[in-house]
Amino acid sequence: MNQDHKKKVTIEGLMRFKRMEQPAPEFWRSFDKELRAKQLAAIVEKRPWWSSLVSPFTYVRRHPAMLGAAAALTIGLVSYKYIHFSGIQGHGLNTAQSEAVAELAADTPKTSHQENVQAIEIAHPQASSIAQVGYKTSKTVAEVQDKRFQSTGFRTEFSDIDSPSARSIAANLAAARASQPEMISHLLGLESHLVSVTNADYTSEPLERVASPSEERRARLLATSLPSASHADARLGSSGIERTLSSLSEDRLYQSIRRYDVGGEKISMKVKF
Amino acid sequence: MLDAVKVPSKTLVASPERLQEADQDSVIVKQVQAGDVAAFDRLIIKYRERLYGVIYHMTSNREDASDLTQDAFIKAFQAINRFQGQASFFTWIYRIAINSTLSHLRKNKFKSFLSLDTVNSEEPVSQELISALTDKTGADRDTFVHELQEKLNEAMQKLSIKHRTVITLFEIDGLSHQEIAEVMDCSVGTVRSRLHYAKQLLQAEMKAYIS
What we know:
With 273 residues, chain A is mostly helical. Helix content of chain A is 73%, strand content 5%. The longest helix of chain A is centred in the middle third of the chain and has 28 residues, at 125-152.
């Protein structure tokens, strides 16, 4: 070796010399071909079963803020809906009750309601105002229900009953309606009559609603005689006769009976007022 | 004399050019993440020679270097959707390549053998070094170059894996201390220390050619 030149060679110089070790240009052609094949194999390669489990968590790790915001929004919407419905229930009517009231309000004709109010108004002016409020409440609930049906865009008979028990009751009612429509309409008519009577009863004193022993006896007597009496005088309805008879005292009732006739299974009774 | 030779530096760390490159890489990576698989080819063409060079000088085996470089690109391609852009793509793929190479070297610690590329003796750097070391020409010159290449690679293989990595990244690939620290996940002081020690060891191994 040339000793004069050797002193001028450094490690850095040797490293630069080493840097000149380079592959031939043909090398890169085969390199690219092999790399392409490996890349395609990597794309086609079946991924392990756990990679599908890892990928969602990768997304979560990359977008934690977005996922948190979505979760908060969902919780907010659910909470709002819950509070909204509990607020409606907090006004004194739960969903099932409001549904029942709305159904009664829809089933009861307006004319009959007006008649009831008039009748109550004659007896107790204060009670009529309470009945009016009750009617308005049921009407408002029915309107709200109708609006909710319209806003959701589909109306089925039991679409917005929230309580499972109320839903089952409504379903049973519908089934009964389908099987025995006459009986159900009769029962619903009685129910509406009872509602109006109950409204009137609530206006009276509690002691007045307790039946006296004499009235119980009269009721037992009438229970046997009332069918024939109503049959004998078809012009009077059973409710009219009952109302008339209930206004009589026990002595006056005995004095009013003029004649008894017994024929076959019928007992006819003539009463003169 | 050799020190005075101006070598086109590959070090672009923290320079405007390097930052511009990082921005370009970021755009390409986003294209790949959006499903443009062909855009990844641009990254391959851009970095294949540098990555291959680093791995080759660490392993001193061109077949291993070729395989490890391809594997590094495949790993990067498969994990491109997990790349968040916190580091530059350059640093990220270097880290993949270095870690793969270190793992390979640890596994084949006692099975390594040299498989060297040809030295481009026509380059000015090579010519000046050869003329500084010998006056030989023709076949004797080629034999001397081959002998020097083997000695140099054997000396490199005598270094520990970490020291070899540091001196390769700094002296051959031209990365800065900071970049090496990022790639190797260690402190800059550690990089400087390893670099100094590696140079001392190499100097001892190559003393016949240096002094």
